[in-house]
Amino acid sequence: MIRKMGITWQLRMRMAEKNMFQTSDLVPLLAERGIHLSREQVFRLVTQTPQRLSMDTLAALCDILDCSPNDLIDINVVNAKIRKAGGGDASALPRVRRSTIRRPDLT
To answer: Where do the segments described as Disordered lie (predicted)?
Structure first.
């Protein structure tokens, strides 16, 4: 079995601790640090867990919020385990049922 890892994105909580409640508050602060993102991109960054995040953006967020990456990202194990392909217990596999396709007689 493979353990599936997940993350919890804590940016909104860290912003609230610094009395920053508008996502647009981050736009000029990021720009001061050389990170130029649109308001929409910053909104998505705050409200959704990012799948990809540049190290420069992460460093800028840590500087703005006076925190470490560990304060922004909580790593956790997702309860659902994924079964590896191949091998393993054959009884756990679904049974194959053969079928016959019969075509209607066209005469």
So the answer is: 87-107
